[in-house]
């Protein structure tokens, strides 16, 4: 490819240093970024994929500034593990892997392996797996969002907002089967024409221009909520059957049913809350994969009526039992322990 004299000299220097200090460590060098996208200007640096295969290769890493040009350069190495992680599409900044034009290679094996990793990433971006990647990014954004809500200074809140924005941008891109080819200044240009959450860009601007903590937190909440709603998909769920819910009713009964009545007797509001919420959590978890009818549990929680909570628990458990029956499952009941032992051992 066509490179400036400066860029060619830098690449040649990396190759010569590899031969000198770590022979056999350098797999290949690829060029990506503004040189490839045509977004180059007089102060553009050089984005390189410098792929190494052992720890000696880290000796090639360096950072420097050319005073005559006023440009800083970062000679950053990447090993195979890092490139494989990039191929898993855990973020949307995949240009190093996907766009690099190879200008040096130690052999065909390295080129073939990079090509295979590109194909792996391409397949994820074309498949349902991309939605799982996007969901994982949103989950991480929610974790950082909690830190933003707890931040004691505006500087800390802004750094948390930065983390959330970065992850949500990545989630939207990967969810659309795309990745970022260019730098930060082209972010919104690259979002143009793809499906976005409601007021996505406006909400980001509200965050980055916020001057008060309350405004930043409110805007971040709106952004995260809109992106999570946007990314939520209607999954094709399994119908309830013996293979996917058998034993769960008995487990719910065993874990919490009698504890609800006990909590009411002892006026133990904490236990009442935790047991009832545990039932809701287990039902919700099952409902993520199985097409159950809606069974609200915590909608009916009342901290001032623990006996009523026990009744509502039983009502929810009864509704779940109906799902059991629809699936043709009978809960296991025994008259006494001897009957259980006889049945348990008769196998």
Write the layout of secondary structure elements.
Layout: H1 5-21, E1 26-32, H2 34-37, E2 47-52, E3 62-66, E4 71-75, E5 77-79, H3 80-87, H4 95-98, E6 101-105, H5 108-126, H6 129-150, H7 154-175, H8 187-191, H9 200-208, H10 213-231, H11 242-245, H12 248-266, H13 269-287, H14 306-326, H15 337-345
Parallel strand pairs: 2-5
Antiparallel strand pairs: 1-2, 1-6, 3-4
Tell me what you see in this structure.
By secondary structure, the protein is α+β, with helices and mostly antiparallel strands. 58% of the residues lie in helices and 9% in strands. It folds into three domains: 5-126, Beta Polymerase, domain 2; 129-231, Four Helix Bundle (Hemerythrin (Met), subunit A) (Up-down Bundle), CATH 1.20.120; 242-345. The chain has 15 helices and six strands. The radius of gyration is 28 Å and the shape is elongated. The termini are far apart. The mean pLDDT is 95.
